[in-house]
Amino acid sequence: MRNEQKRTSTPSTPSNAFSPSFLNRPRHLPDPQDRQHADLAPLVIDPRCAGPWTVEERDAGHGRVWVVLRKEVPPSGAAPVAAYRCHATAGLTAALLPALSVPNHLRLGEPKPTGVPLHDGEHFLGHLSPRGPAADPALPHYLHAARHLATHPESLVHLLRTYDPEALAILGRALARAA
Predict the structure, then answer these.
(1) Looking at the whole model, is its pTM more than 0.85?
(2) How far is 3 from 120, CA to CA, in rounded Å?
């Protein structure tokens, strides 16, 4: 005969990414931008891209298109900055446009025996393998975009809304498993 016992201890991590303990945890962390870039003042390089942005479906005469508009402007008078046939492309544009409003200080240095140095302004971040895919000259641009998505909630919302209505639930479960 098996002896079954119920577990009475509570898990150390929340079982749900939407639980109050999980959602309150980030409030106690410093702002991600403040942690790594405290001495790099955000300099706006193209204020036209700063946003906030919205995505709307509109009639284009030859079919429906998804347009990217500045959020504050009333929809009737708003001129789109982009129009696409695909909602996903419009959402990605709305998510990434604000990244163009701040300078990208990431750059690769000259290869050394230890690897290709990656710098953020005057700050050394690490070395990349000179023969590896991370040493691609385009990496600083992609890393800048990824940093932007990770630190700007409105852009992350555009990204999550772009693909699957279940994306937030999937993300919540993945975060709960990783914690």
Answers:
(1) no
(2) 59
Give dist(CA 125, CA 146) in Å, integer: 16
Q: Where are the chain's structural domains?
A: 40-103+138-169
Place 128 in a pLDDT band, splitting at 50, 70 and 90.
very high
Q: What are the start-end ranges of the H helices in the chain?
A: 20-24, 32-37, 87-96, 139-151, 153-163, 167-178
The pLDDT of residue 174? 85
What is the C-alpha to C-alpha distance for residues 138 and 55, in angstroms, rounded to an integer?
Answer: 28
| Strands (DSSP E) found in 24-166 | 53-59, 64-70, 82-84, 106-108, 116-120, 123-128
Block residue for tokens 């508009």: 69
Band of residue 121 on the pLDDT scale cut at 50, 70, 90: very high
Q: Which residue is listed with tokens 């700063």? A: 50
Contact 37, 120 (CB under 8 A): yes
Backbone φ, ψ for residue 69 (5° rounding): -130, 155
Distance CA 17, CA 160 (A): 15
Q: How confident is the model at residue 117 (pLDDT cuts 50, 70, 90)?
A: very high
How much is the pLDDT for 75? 58
